[in-house]
Amino acid sequence: MSDLQLQGAIEALLFASGQPLPADKIGGILQLPVEQVHTLIADMLKVMTAAERGLVIVEVAGGYQLCTKPAFFDIINKLAAIQEARLSTAALETLAIVAFKQPVTKQEIESIRGVSSDRVITTLSDRMLIKEIGRKETIGRPILYGTTTEFLQCFGLKSLGDLPAIANLLPESHSAE
Question: Helix, strand or coil for residue 165?
């Protein structure tokens, strides 16, 4: 293998590992002397540092690890906030109501759920999964909610037409009712 191919292999190993990999382990996998691993990584570091790339190799905990550059901390933080944020059962339930019944008011959501939904609606709005899409033409003109493009992306849908039919989601004992 050429040095470039070996560097590609090292990069792939570091990426796949997600944890620091010691040079001897990398050398064992690629059947290389440890000194050559250090040299290849040093060459990779020069290229990664000089280029406007998002990744860098760091030596940590007795091994090498592929990490994002500190300059991209704010961007990575935004991603982490989105990915780490799990939805509660109440949020998923409310999101399903909005997705299938939109446009829908808070009162209609609460009528279906049987509990107050203020906090859940705020959470879903903050995560940009639902949004205000207008006002209902009725007394008090309550806010109407609908799903967002982020909702479609999050659930891998091209459009709302890709949602399953509600009848297909109900157990067979309820679908005849």
Answer: coil
The arithmetic mean of pLDDT across residues 19-39, rounded, is 93
pTM equals 0.52
In total, how many domains does the chain have? Answer: 2
CB distance 146 to 163 below 8 Å: no
- With the CA atoms of 79, 144, 87 and 151 taken in that order, what torsion angle do they form, in degrees rounded to the nearest 10? -50
CB 152 within 8 A of CB 159: yes
β-strand partners of 68:
55
Cβ atoms 130, 147 nearer than 8 A: yes
> With 80 as the cut, is the pLDDT of residue 19 above it?
yes
Residue 108: alpha-carbon gap to chain centroid: 30
Which 3 state secondary structure label does DSSP give 7? helix
Q: 23: how many CB neighbours lie within 10 A of its CB?
A: 21
DSSP letter string over 35-56? Answer: HHHHHHHHHHHHHHHHTT-SEE
Q: Quick one: 100 and 168 in the same domain?
A: yes
Domain residue limits at 64:
3-72
